[in-house]
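re the bet — no i am not wrong, look at it urself. input seq straight from the record:
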Amino acid sequence: MSHRMNFMIDEDNWQHLSHVPRGERSRWVNAALANYRQERRRSEAAREMDVFAESLSSVEGTSVDWVRAERRRDG
């Protein structure tokens, strides 16, 4: 479903949008908004991962050390 909206944009954005053909402006604005939303979601996910990473305790050694320790424990 489509919705008609009236809103104001600044002069810089108008200068760019005025070069987009009239029949394509809605598609262009929709694509720009979708891209903006996707970037915001990615940015928020990155912030959440950073917070999560800070809550983890640090681990010493490498994965090779962990495998060797497991083998000694099992063997």
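see?? The mean pLDDT is 92. told u. also Helices lie at 11-17, 25-55, 63-74. so pay up
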